[in-house]
């Protein structure tokens, strides 16, 4: 009976973690470049009373055995890197990657981080930075006297400095891809860090080596589907209720044993 209580408790914990993941998805349904996650579960160890295939008599073996499961746990929280919808902003420094790939930015502590959020702006030095001041890599400085900025699909950044001037290229935006993007570590602020699971960053021009092209004047929206997340939330709630019923049933059976005379 105590095993039933502990097993049901692991189910409650797993569904609570699933609800936390779903809540985070819903909270970020309007976050630019956000990628939804899903909780994945696995069963725990089994208590083996009789091994499958164990001898059950002369020239006879048990076809199934007797094994009792000990519950469930969260094995992983998997990110879904499918593309989100386009949000048209008409801002010259808003950029969307139409396909796979990440922008790379330099954080104040010297780390290179990766993001799908292409909402850039100029800092006091004219450098392209994200909303938290992290500098886009390779560094691009837009002169103060530029009248317009053009970002091509292949990442070439050009400026116009006068009504009759010829566009002048001042830099190149490269994108980065990974063998296993799901292995990247989320650190908040729409940033991801490389880990041993993600593999080494593969830098290329947009549109090469399987990466997407750039689109100026628009941002990538979150790939969260609110209707789907609401269904997942209801499902997790019902599973939680079912596991709580198992706890109540085990408690009632223990109570019946305690009341024996």
What key phrases describe this protein's structure?
single chain; 261 residues; alpha+beta; 2 domains; three-stranded antiparallel β-sheet
Task: Furnish the topology, listing elements before pairings.
Layout: H1 2-27, E1 37-43, E2 46-50, E3 55-57, E4 60-61, E5 66-69, E6 72-79, E7 86-88, E8 95-98, E9 103-106, E10 112-115, E11 121-122, E12 128-129, E13 135-137, E14 148-151, E15 156-160, E16 168-172, E17 175-177, E18 185-188, E19 191-193, E20 202-204, E21 213-216, E22 218-220, H2 226-258
Antiparallel strand pairs: 1-6, 2-5, 3-4, 7-22, 8-21, 9-10, 9-13, 11-12, 14-15, 15-16, 17-20, 18-19
Helix pairs in contact: 1-2
User: Strand sequence of the main sheet, in spatial order?
Assistant: 10-9-13
Q: Give the count of structural domains.
A: 2
Distance between the termini: 19 Å
Largest sheet: 3 strands, antiparallel
Poorly predicted regions: none
Tally the beta strands: 22
Overall 3D geometry?
elongated
Proportion of beta-strand residues: 25-35%
Structural class: alpha+beta
Percent helix among the residues?
10-25%
Q: How confident overall, as mean pLDDT?
A: 92
Order of helices and strands: HEEEEEEEEEEEEEEEEEEEEEEH
The tally of helices reads: 2
Rounded radius of gyration (Å):
27 Å
